[in-house]
Design a protein that fits this description.
It comes from Anseongella ginsenosidimutans. It holds the Pfam family ThuA. Keywords: Signal. This is ThuA-like domain-containing protein. This protein has about 240 residues and is an alpha/beta fold. It has a domain at about 25-135 and about 200-245: 3-Layer(aba) Sandwich (Rossmann fold), CATH 3.40.50.880. It has 6 helices and 11 strands. The strands form 2 sheets. It has a 9-stranded mixed beta sheet, with helices on both faces. Strand 10 and strand 11 form a beta hairpin.
Length: about 240
């Protein structure tokens, strides 16, 4: 009898201890990955979703992947610590959904934009400020030399000062270096043909309207989501926006 009581007490103690134990970094964080397209559709979207799910399993956050804009309500967005726009294109949210997303960021949540997130919602000025730039044009897919210009950010710690990567290098309507973002990675325009932005940003971050945002231009091809350096960079960007949420 005493033995049974001891076991019961031990089990209760163990369950209480587990319930109140501090969560590891990233644990129990919920991310919404949104990949709706109303323009060009990238064949890298499935690879991106799988890479993010794998990253979540390894780092202790959960991914919900959807193309359903009905997730963009106050009630549904409240379940997530950050939203990732994965190769979205065109006008993907109506006015009510846009307003809900603005309130979500203003409440202190995070945003990650991947590749064609800058080819999205051109008529929504608030979103343009959140993501940091809008797509203008691009040369053919090419290998280019990337330069890390800020090693202090979670997304760039551990990256080499320079590395080569093949992707689709957007030219932007306005160089994001001149807006209120901190550039993390640039590309050397002498390493590929037809670049137009001179000091050519590839990745950046900023705090905006109460929340945090991180963007990377990398992610045009499925192979981008199997490149360890790209994944390390993206993982750190996600960690940055989650730390503020």
């Amino acid at each position: 009898m005493k033995c049974h009581r001891f076991i019961s007490c031990f089990c209760v103690f163990f369950l209480m201890a587990a319930a109140f134990a501090p969560a590891a970094a990233g644990q129990d964080k919920q991310l919404l990955v949104f990949s709706k397209t109303a323009g060009f559709r990238h064949n890298s979207i499935p690879a991106g979703i799988e890479a993010l799910k794998k990253m979540g399993r390894e780092q202790g956050f959960s991914i919900t992947a959807t193309e359903d804009a009905a997730f963009f309500t106050d009630e549904k967005l409240a379940a997530y610590h950050a939203v990732i726009f994965l190769n979205t294109t065109g006008d993907i949210l109506d006015e009510e959904q846009q307003a809900a997303f603005e309130r979500y960021i203003q409440a202190g949540h995070g945003f990650v934009g991947i590749h064609s997130a800058t080819d999205t919602e051109y008529e929504w000025p608030w979103y343009g400020k959140l993501v940091g730039a809008y797509f203008k044009s691009h040369p053919p897919t090419a290998k280019g030399k990337l330069k890390v210009v800020d090693h202090s950010h979670p997304s760039t710690k551990g990256l080499p000062r320079e590395f080569m990567h093949k992707d689709e290098w957007y030219d932007f309507r306005k160089n994001p270096s001149s807006s209120e973002v901190t550039v993390l990675v640039t590309i050397d325009e002498t390493s590929y043909d037809h670049g137009e932005n001179k000091a050519h940003p590839v990745s950046w971050y900023h705090e905006f309207d109460g929340g945090r945002a991180f963007y990377t231009l990398m992610g045009h091809m499925p192979e981008s989501f199997s490149n360890p350096l790209v994944l390390k960079h993206l993982s750190g960007g996600i960690r940055y926006v989650l730390e503020g949420s």
